[in-house]
Design goal:
The complex is a heterodimer of chains A (about 250) and B (about 200).
Chain A: H1 5-9, H2 12-16, H3 22-34, H4 36-54, H5 62-73, H6 94-100, H7 106-119, H8 123-127, H9 131-141, E1 146-151, E2 157-163, E3 168-174, E4 184-190, E5 196-201, E6 209-216, E7 223-229, E8 243-245
Antiparallel strand pairs in A: 1-2, 2-3, 3-6, 4-5, 4-7, 7-8
Chain B: H1 18-26, H2 30-52, H3 55-71, H4 83-100, H5 102-114, H6 117-130, H7 135-142, H8 146-156, H9 162-169, H10 173-191
Classes of the chains: A alpha+beta (about 250), B mainly alpha (about 200).
Chain lengths: ~250, ~200
């Protein structure tokens, strides 16, 4: 049976509830790839459907947790989906993966390459990324993302890319000198009133580049700072920051 | 949600959202997975149990779903929807696969013969009522028309295809498609689901 396009569109609801047969599901998923408004609608309807699951929450058998955790310990995870092919479950939004993979839109490509080079993320990495790297790439390519690059007092420079609506930022640095006595570089979110929240210890540099760190929770007036701290880091900065990056 | 997650470190005051946790799980973080288990196992098990019915099979399917969350965490894309909806989609599809597969065949036939729409709906209403926290969903379901509510309950909790729902309710196929879509939209508006 051949469905007219308008009929296909009416399937958004039953598709979101998985109430279609295999053939219809496949046909509708092909349609979804071309129909952005349908895709958007399906996503919204799925969110409502998930709420229906919350209505029937039931405590699982006590023994299940131990069983699942044991299985997890011996089960290999799937690599991230790369390239244009996505599983049906997630097919519609393969748009993003495609953006990040090789055929980047020209504008994005330029931005990604510039930021990628600055932050030490190669284009190859953007394409064949782990989930974490994809999150980083998402920040780099978010609409309105801004880059601030500031030299540090000990040499080298530090960069922050802020993606405003994601409330996330990516920090990276290059040319930071290696530290003696197992001291570490520690990254902070510094609030206007002087309080500092520990974000992370910076990973060791690789050929002069400090790999990017992804963090969340940056408010509009916060700054990002780095201090040098004793081994293991501290809960509050104990030295003057080597760099403070203002909000973009 | 069944329980709130323990703070993973003193640095984090806010409860970590499921999306972030899934990102950690994708990197092989088993502790993050355990937190996800604590937060989602109840909803996953409840949904699977509702659709599959048979306790032994439900246990099996729920475990498969949870393991699938672990295995395919790297495939989750927050740009496409919430982690909750991603996990519930996996759970619902697995449950449906089970009742539609040969394993479930015999049982399903019996169910078709024995279960009439009203019992199914009454049971769901009961379960929903038993959960104070689910009051909102219940209230929202009440704002739907009978046919919207019945067709959604049969399709989602019953695991029936819309053709089967149409047959059960003696309503035209086109009507079921529209009613389910309208019902979900009303539910969405009523519950303030963002997107």
């Amino acid at each position: 049976m051949r469905l007219l396009r308008s009929d296909l569109h009416a399937l958004t609801g039953v598709y979101a509830l998985d109430a279609v047969d295999e053939a219809e599901r496949a046909r509708f998923e092909r349609h979804l790839r071309r129909c952005q408004s349908c895709d958007h609608e399906v996503r919204g309807l799925r969110e409502s459907a998930a709420r229906l699951a919350l209505a029937v929450v039931t405590a699982p058998p006590q023994t299940m947790k131990a069983g699942v955790l044991a299985a997890v310990a011996s089960t290999r995870q799937l690599p991230p989906e790369v390239g244009p092919q996505a599983p049906p479950l997630l097919s519609a939004g393969a748009r993003w993966t495609r953006l990040a993979a090789v055929p980047l839109a020209v504008a994005c490509l330029a931005v990604a390459i510039v930021l990628g080079v600055l932050l030490g993320v190669s284009r190859h990495q953007l394409g064949t990324a782990t989930a974490r790297q994809r999150e980083i790439a998402a920040v780099l390519m978010a609409p309105g993302a801004r880059l601030v690059r500031v030299p540090t007092t000990v040499g080298g420079s530090a960069s922050v890319v802020v993606a405003p609506h994601l409330h996330q930022f990516v920090f990276a640095a290059s040319g930071l000198p290696a530290l003696a006595d197992r001291r570490v570089y520690e990254l902070w979110i510094m609030e206007p009133d002087g309080r500092a929240t520990r974000v992370a210890l910076l990973p060791a540099a690789n050929r002069g580049r400090t790999p990017p760190v992804l963090a969340a929770g940056l408010a509009a007036d916060d700054r990002v700072g780095v201090t040098v701290e004793p081994a293991g880091g501290t809960s509050k900065p104990t030295t003057a920051p080597i760099v403070v990056i203002p909000p973009a | 949600m069944p329980a709130s997650a323990p703070s993973p470190s003193p640095d984090t005051q806010r409860e970590i959202d499921l999306e972030t946790l899934l990102g950690e799980v994708a990197l092989g973080n088993e502790a993050a997975f355990e937190t996800i288990y604590d937060r989602l196992a109840g909803a996953i098990y409840g949904l699977v149990r509702r659709v599959v019915r048979d306790p032994a099979q439900s246990d099996e399917v729920a475990q498969e779903v949870l393991l699938e969350v672990w295995r395919s965490a790297s495939r989750f894309d927050p740009a496409k929807g919430s982690a909750m909806s991603w996990a519930m989609t996996i759970a619902h599809r697995r449950a449906i696969d089970r009742v539609r597969s040969a394993v479930g065949e015999r049982q399903r036939d019996q169910r078709f013969a024995a279960a009439t729409a009203p019992t199914e709906i009454a049971e769901v209403a009961e379960t929903v009522e038993a959960n104070l926290d689910r009051e909102r969903v219940r209230r929202c379901l009440e704002t739907l028309t009978d046919i919207q509510r019945e067709s959604m309950v049969l399709a989602y909790y019953g695991g029936y295809s819309y053709r089967e729902v149409a047959a059960l309710l003696h309503v035209a196929l086109g009507t079921i498609k529209t009613r389910i879509r309208d019902g979900l939209i009303r539910l969405r508006d009523c519950m303030g689901v963002s997107l």
